[in-house]
Write a structure and sequence with these properties.
heterodimer, A: 227 residues, mainly alpha, B: 313 residues, 11 helices, 70% helix, globular
Chain lengths: 227, 313
């Protein structure tokens, strides 16, 4: 059966991971904030799909819960909250990165390369067979998502776009966790999950306050004194 | 030998007569998506017939390059199309060259078209040529790297060999390098065929036009040859995408029952790809000209990653 064959599952997961990487690079290149938020939503949806696939092929039902949580919160709730916030504070819709877009994209490419090199040292070909090693080659993608997320965070000026970068970074962490351990205990997953959720909501409120106080979301203005 | 000649003629006829249909299909689909009725699917054929019957206006300042260009462009594009497997995994001219020949035949046509645009000395022509060359200078490396990615998997840059090896490996298209290469080639397809985020194919007088600016001085049969070549180039690139990444049902020889099935599947796959391009076209606004290199930089990085990941995964 196709849907029981672990090799097929492996290919499917690797393909979705590659799609995650494509989306991440598109986000680096994309200037519109709303499109960025939606791309994050799609990325989270793919992540939920990966989690569900791993749950199916590994017969680990508790990962289904993680997948559903990801779908509900990260693919639906967070994009909606962020989009409403973006509309509410009427910021300029264009993201202004410090480094221009072609260079950013090339830096992301180099970071991905670095991620591949790092992940290579974790690769154990003798363990690569069998259903237990499902999606082992997604580690490189996970590290790439993490590094590019970091780069996006450093590269952007506005608080809201930095929150978005943080979320992408967290997507990478989640992918690394799920592809290495096939699901940590549910309580750990849930803990991280709600941590991120609460952090995002707090950061959203905080960026609203920054904007109220400084008339701008540019975080470099925070270092100025007001009196 | 005579079978090969027949295959050559069959593919030439297929490419010549299918290419305006694909253009017509995507125009009609785009019109429908924008709630317009649009022209019929066969409109490009009528345009070509009309143009071929008309007289020509050739500017006084034009040299022999101006009259030479449409023929070179048409011949180079047709030749490139004959090197790509369409309904059979065996391209009729595959012995004469592979992916490199295809890319550089298309580049030869583009080079002459740019010269033709410059030749009359009209400012619009020069502007179009300069933009076209700027874009292709970035799109071409992305195209090459993406083609090399699939060539490494197949062990040959011959497109017939690539299609046959893709046919043997049924899950090949799920590999991350293929996925990245496909994404890169899709962006290159949009850039090279002058679709909306890069160029607007439906405009004839706009400051931002690229392809149309180059051919502004052409009229009559010459214009027909250029338009026909543009349609064939689009078909060539789409065929490359379709047959290299999704070769299901591609027949291995020419004169067998499977070829008919292959023809039907080929048409269906082309229609799906054209629909995807149209969807991108209707859901995006045209990029400002100096933003286009950003999009192509994405394509370049994606295809470079694709090439690198064939070694690492």
């Amino acid at each position: 059966m196709l849907f029981e064959d672990p090799q097929f599952g492996n290919k499917l997961i690797t393909m979705m991971a590659a799609a995650l990487l494509v989306l991440q690079i598109m986000m680096v290149a994309q200037r519109w904030l709303i499109t960025n938020i939606r791309a994050f939503g799609v990325q989270s949806f793919l992540l939920a799909c990966i989690a569900a696939t791993i749950a199916h092929f590994n017969h680990a039902p508790h990962i289904y819960i993680v997948a559903v949580l990801t779908l509900l919160f990260k693919a639906l709730l967070l994009p909606i909250v962020l989009e409403r916030l973006a509309l509410k504070i009427e910021i300029r819709q264009e993201i202004e990165p410090f480094v221009n877009v072609p260079v950013s994209v090339i830096v992301s490419g180099l970071l991905t390369l670095l991620a591949y090199v790092v992940a290579e040292s974790f690769h154990r070909p003798e363990e690569a067979a069998g259903p237990g090693r499902l999606g082992h080659n997604t580690l490189a993608v996970a590290i790439a998502l993490f590094l590019i997320g970091f780069f996006m965070m450093v590269n952007r000026r506005k608080a809201l776009t930095q929150v978005l970068a943080l979320l992408c970074l967290e997507n990478g962490l989640f992918l690394a966790a799920i592809s290495l351990t096939y699901g940590m205990p549910l309580i750990v997953e849930a803990g991280i999950f709600f941590d991120v959720l609460v952090a995002t909501l707090l950061l959203a409120i905080l960026s609203y306050r920054i904007r109220e106080t400084f008339d701008s979301m540019d975080v470099s203005r925070l270092s100025r004194l007001r009196g | 030998m005579s079978q090969q000649a027949a295959a050559l003629l069959a593919q030439a006829a297929l490419v010549l007569f299918l290419s305006p249909l694909i253009t017509g299909f995507s125009r009609t689909l785009k019109a429908r998506l924008q709630m317009r009725r649009g022209p019929g699917i066969l409109q490009p054929y009528r345009d070509l017939r009309k143009l071929l019957q008309k007289g020509m206006v050739i500017p006084d300042t034009a040299s022999w390059i101006f009259t030479f260009t449409p023929y070179v462009l048409f011949a180079a594009t047709l030749l490139a199309c004959l090197l790509i497997p369409t309904i059979s995994a065996q391209a009729p001219l595959s012995l004469f060259g592979g992916a490199l020949a295809v890319v550089y035949l298309l580049a030869l046509g583009r080079f002459f078209l740019a010269l033709g645009g410059l030749d009359t000395g009209s400012p619009f022509g020069g502007l179009g040529s300069s933009r076209e060359m700027t874009i292709s200078a970035i799109a071409e490396p992305a195209l090459m790297l993406a083609v090399f990615t699939v060539a490494i998997g197949a062990g040959s840059t011959n497109l017939s060999a690539v299609a046959q090896s893709a046919l043997r490996q049924s899950w090949q298209f799920l590999a991350p390098s293929q996925m990245l290469a496909f994404a890169a080639l899709f962006i290159v397809l949009i850039a090279e065929t002058g679709r909306i985020p890069v160029d607007n194919p439906a405009t004839h007088l706009e400051l931002t036009m690229i392809h149309e600016a180059m051919i502004l001085e052409y009229s009559g049969p010459y214009l027909a040859l250029i338009e026909w070549s543009a349609a064939m180039k689009q078909l060539a690139l789409m065929t490359l995408l379709v047959n290299v990444f999704f070769p299901f049902g591609l027949s291995t020889g020419w004169w067998q029952l499977g070829t008919l099935v292959s023809l039907v599947l080929f048409a269906a796959k082309l229609m799906l790809l054209a629909a995807a391009v149209v969807l991108v076209e209707t859901s995006n606004a045209k990029l400002r000209i100096f933003r286009v290199p950003e999009l192509l930089a994405v394509a370049f990085v994606l295809s470079a990653l694709a090439l690198i990941s064939t070694f690492l995964f």
